[in-house]
Amino acid sequence: MKHLILIIISFLTLSCKGQNQEFVIYLSKFRSVELPLTVDRKTYSTIFYPNKINHEIIENLVKEFICNDSTNYSVNSTEYRYDYGVKFALGDYHVVLVHKQKYEGTTPYDFDLSEVVLIVYSKQGRILSSQSISKDNDGWISSTQITRENIEVQQIKILEFNKSEMNSKIETKVYQIARNGIINNIRTEPIKKGIVIWDEQIEDFKLK
Questions:
Q1: Where are the beta strands (DSSP E) in 122-164?
Q2: What average pLDDT is seen over the chain?
Q3: Surface-to-core class of residue 174, CB atoms within 10 Å of its CB (0-12 exposed, 13-18 middle, 19+ buried)
Q4: Closest CA to 37 of 128, 140, 118, 114
């Protein structure tokens, strides 16, 4: 009987350790979505700011659940802000989209820069893989299609400004989340040339 009680206590202890309550609370702040999902200039606000309110992730959670790799992600709150986005389950993993905002910059490509960061977590909240998949500001335009099979990102880089028709470069990358939770770039298409124009109907830039 003593052995049985010890086994039960050990099991309960291990179960409690397996549940990262801080991660559970952190994950609950993300809105659940169904796939397929499109993230572009038209859907951006709906996805990340459905109530037109910033849902900033506090610094200690940024350090624990986003920026554990300091070479890729800065925790400096005077330069960057990270906001809650959306989440979906994929196999045994939790997958989230985080909005990263950079305030300052010296060029049109890094000033007031918005990025979408894709992060894959284990059920216990350990980061398995993360990748900044798209950029948007005056110099970048992105469109991302997310399905259960892959993530396809079209990234436009505007090469000239203040013209009715602006030359640009278009690069398409396809990512896939492997069975071990790692985000892999499985295909990068050759860079194409394009023309970006202002569309009065959507009040934004788009490819001609």
A1: 127-136, 140-146, 151-158
A2: 88
A3: middle
A4: 118
